[in-house]
TrEMBL record:
Bilayer disposition of the protein: Single-pass type II membrane protein
Protein name according to UniProt: Monoacylglycerol lipase ABHD2
Organism expressing this protein natively: Parambassis ranga (Indian glassy fish)
One cellular component term from this protein's GO annotations in UniProt: sperm plasma membrane
Function (record text): Progesterone-dependent acylglycerol lipase that catalyzes hydrolysis of endocannabinoid arachidonoylglycerol (AG) from cell membrane. Acts as a progesterone receptor: progesterone-binding activates the acylglycerol lipase activity, mediating degradation of 1-arachidonoylglycerol (1AG) and 2-arachidonoylglycerol (2AG) to glycerol and arachidonic acid (AA). Also displays an ester hydrolase activity against acetyl ester, butanoate ester and hexadecanoate ester.
Main subcellular location: membrane
Length: 452
């Protein structure tokens, strides 16, 4: 039987200590990566609010605590914009309700058939008025998506009728009736839905809501023609990028994994387009040919798909022209109704440089408030204590709270001063009572409102 010499024992002890040191270093490295990736050291804070010192803005900030208090995401993963975005994309929402609506079909002038789902309110609104939310979902989305269903159910219970546009070609069980699909900024289908609501409910007032790509569409719609703002109380846009031309270069960068997200979104768009390839190719008026579809198979980015397919639906001669004409950045300054623009600093899809657009708007336009959260990702905004998120998100609640406050504000004003009133530009006595002396303020992401 052999025994270890003293020298051998020393060597063994040193090797054991060295091995334990390697394991300890490996564990420390993994923990460091987790902390960095999950952004666990990032503090929670209220949104940064950019606004002008108008009576309405001050009333909103006083009456909307969601805009001025801390947004607290789930502790273990909610400070990661990537996880917020991924969970929204895959899971949508937790405990998703199933609101009951009626699907409407609207023939368009070019042979297309727009569809939207109409959901009646489940109770009276706090003002007693008839108010309809007209909602435009994100890219390739429709009323059956979990985040839309959750938001609609919550809004119905607060007394809002909801109309949700189904993007042309997005519903898997509805065939195209013309050789085109939805595009980044085409407002035709949304305009048709709004027109139907106005005709069917002559007494209703409208609240316009757009998510991501839908935010671009609704802001462009309101700015295209001043008459589009008739009977509109306010507009809320969440997580849009404002300018496709500026965004295209950032979307090809690897920073914040945008190139990977670009690839995934391009794959989803390819599936949608190919599902309707027969219709897109089979009609005489189609601008899409076999060569275009062949290039589509090889596309790895949304830019390539937009250049080969999407711009041709409306006959744009170049990708630059398509992006210029379809982006709301050229129309949004013409929107005069109260406008809430919401973005997140850790949104992996919207580059920080694009946020200069809403910031500048809020600095110059008295009707605009820009809310920038520190966390939330792209369309995530989950709330929760440690691990499990709440069924309703910060986004769901802040949209309804802002809208409720606007409705209360409008209810208290004289009829001639109300948003969308045809008399507001002609009644001099009302104009004489309009407040002036507006100043821009930036509320930092700390609770400093009561210090002013």
């Amino acid at each position: 039987m052999t025994t270890l010499e003293d020298g051998d024992m020393d060597t063994f002890s040193q090797e054991l200590l060295a091995f334990d040191g390697v394991k300890l270093a490996a564990v420390a490295t993994v923990l460091y990566i987790i902390v960095r990736c999950l952004n666990l050291k990032s503090p929670t804070a209220p949104p940064e609010i950019i606004y002008q010192d108008t009576p309405l803005s001050l009333y909103l900030l006083k009456s909307c605590p969601m805009l001025t208090k801390e947004y607290i995401p789930p502790l273990l993963w909610g400070k990661s914009g990537h996880l917020q975005t991924a969970l929204y994309g895959k899971m949508g929402r937790v405990n998703t309700p199933t609101p009951c609506g009626v699907r409407k079909f609207l023939p368009m002038h070019d042979g297309a058939t727009a569809t939207f789902d109409l959901f009646e309110a489940l109770g009276d609104h706090s003002t007693g008025d008839d108010i309809t939310m007209v909602i435009c979902p994100g890219i390739g989305n429709h009323s059956e998506k979990n985040y839309i269903r959750t938001f609609v159910d919550y809004s119905q219970r607060q007394g809002y009728r909801c109309a949700v546009l189904n993007h042309l070609g997005a519903l898997p069980n509805v065939e195209l009736t013309s050789p085109r699909m939805f595009t980044y900024g085409c407002t035709w289908e949304f305009a048709a839905m709004v027109g139907y609501i106005k005709r069917s409910f002559p007494q209703t007032q409208l609240v316009v809501v757009g998510f991501s790509l839908g935010g671009n569409i609704v802001c462009k719609f309101l700015g295209e023609n001043y008459s589009n703002q008739d009977r509109v109380l306010c507009c809320v846009s969440v997580c849009q990028g404002y300018s496709a031309l500026r965004a295209q270069e950032t979307f090809l960068q690897w920073d914040q994994c945008r190139r990977l997200y670009n690839f995934v979104l391009a794959g989803n768009m390819k599936k949608l387009i190919l599902a309707h390839s027969g219709t897109l190719l089979g009609m005489n008026s189609s601008n899409i040919g076999d060569a275009d579809l062949n290039r589509l198979y090889a596309a790895t980015s949304l830019t390539q798909i937009d250049d080969n397919i999407m711009r041709k639906f409306h006959g744009y001669s170049s990708l630059r022209e398509y992006y210029e004409k379809e982006s709301c950045v050229h129309y949004i300054h013409k929107v005069s109704v109260p406008l809430l623009l919401v973005n997140s600093s850790d949104d992996p899809l919207v580059h920080q440089s694009l946020l200069a657009i809403p910031r500048t708007l809020a600095e110059k336009m008295p009707n605009v408030i820009f809310a920038l959260t520190q966390h939330g990702g792209h369309m995530g905004f989950f709330e929760g204590a440690v691990l499990f998120p709440q069924p309703l998100t910060w986004m769901d609640k802040v949209i309804v709270e802002y809208t409720d406050t606007i409705c209360q504000w409008e209810k208290k004003r004289p009829a001639c001063q109300r948003t969308g009133s045809n008399q507001r530009d002609t009644n001099s006595s009302c104009l004489q009572n309009t407040p002036s002396g507006e100043h821009m303020h930036t509320q930092p992401p700390v609770s400093a409102l009561h210090q002013r």
